[in-house]
Write a structure and sequence with these properties.
Radius of gyration: 24 Å
Largest sheet: 7 strands, parallel
CATH architecture: 3-Layer(aba) Sandwich
Structural class: alpha/beta
CATH superfamily: NAD(P)-binding Rossmann-like Domain
Length: 355
């Protein structure tokens, strides 16, 4: 099968490329050339900006891709450009999306009023009403909107689509370093990792990067995925406290997770604004039942690999993100409250018993 990948050289992409090329498929990667990685020699490269797709359309069409995998469409225009370039050329388009399309994400971000959404979220559950979740932050994310990306990907009869909605992805090459702050505390020998009560119980679907790549490669190569939307995530979604304990266990940590009442921790431990009663847990039965997907790498092995990579690729300016003195003070307060609860501190001493 001839596969053209748009993007594919940063985090998840190299794992996908290696899986497809390793299975004998003819893979071409269209990317800017700013992020080169170790890919099989059989993989062909086209270096160009995404906005140059229309200008290179004739050359790209001559490749005769059976499937186009777009891993880097963040705006409606990105997706429409891909569709317009390859309709009536490729047999299918596979588009990478996000689970932030669900209305539950709007409830979490507090951009959409209403009751909590039930979880787990399946592919037919309501999407957000409010578009552009990051527009207020400005910058390059102002036009980010995966709902519109999905609509474009699934909207052409001349280029049938498949959409994969991804969770929080961890693993080697994670430029967002999602394990970083917890692992730094673990490696610094901290006896406790602090978190607010509301965050400790919050659940958000995750997946190891090579398992996500396996799901993407499966959707690319299996025609049964045509016209379908799939959630991708681990089957069991841990709470944040449980997640940190698992990371700590694999990292060889002997400390504890300690929770504190909301609003009592130092500023650097205060989580981003959100309604943490709204969990973001995905139902992944569809891709498992329809395509036979199963994770090739266990969570324990994936975390081991991710931890090893993080330890070898730690940013230099990490210390400025931490406030151990503030954490120690908060931990002392928590332990004092546990030893002397407020009700015992405020209670009047009882008079001695008279015989």
């Amino acid at each position: 099968m001839r596969v053209l990948i748009i993007g594919g050289t940063r985090f998840i992409g190299p794992f996908v490329v290696n899986r497809l090329a390793g299975a004998g498929h003819d893979v071409t990667v269209y990317h800017r050339g700013r992020t080169e990685c170790d890919l099989p020699k059989s993989v062909k490269h086209i270096h160009a900006e995404r906005r140059d797709l229309p200008a290179r359309a004739d050359k790209l069409r001559k490749l005769g891709p059976d499937v186009v995998l777009d891993m880097a469409a963040f705006t409606q225009q990105d997706a429409l450009t891909t569709v317009n370039t390859f309709r009536s050329v490729a047999r299918r388009l596979v588009m990478i999306s996000s689970q932030d399309v669900y209305r539950a994400y709007g409830r979490f971000r507090e951009t959409e009023p209403g009751p909590l959404e039930n979880v787990p979220l399946n592919e037919d559950d309501p999407l957000r009403d409010q578009l552009y979740p990051d527009r207020t932050s400005g910058g390059h994310l102002a036009d980010y909107e995966k709902i519109l990306v999905e609509q474009a990907a699934m909207g052409s009869s001349l280029l049938p689509g498949t959409v994969l909605r991804l969770p929080m992805v961890y693993g080697e090459g994670d430029y967002q370093h999602r394990l970083l702050l917890e692992l730094k505390r673990i490696d610094d020998g901290r006896t406790a990792i602090l978190m607010e009560d509301r965050v400790a119980g919050w659940r958000w679907s995750r997946a190891y990067v090579d398992n996500v790549a396996a799901a993407i490669a499966l959707a690319v190569t299996d025609a049964r995925a045509t016209g379908r939307i799939y959630n991708v995530a681990e089957q069991e979604t841990l709470s944040y406290a449980e997640w940190v304990r698992v990371v700590g266990h694999i990292a060889g940590w002997g400390g504890n997770v300690v929770t504190a009442p909301d609003g009592t921790l130092p500023a650097r431990l205060t989580p981003p604004r959100g309604n943490y009663a709204q969990h973001l847990v995905a139902d992944t039965r569809r891709i498992r039942l329809e395509l036979g997907y199963a994770e090739p790498v266990s969570r324990e092995e994936g975390l081991r690999r991710a931890i090893d990579w993080e330890r070898r690729n730690r940013p230099d300016d990490l210390d400025k993100l931490l406030d151990y003195a503030g954490e120690d003070a908060a931990l002392s307060e928590i332990r004092a409250r546990q030893a002397f609860p407020p009700e015992s501190q405020s209670a009047s001493p009882r008079p001695p018993l008279v015989p």
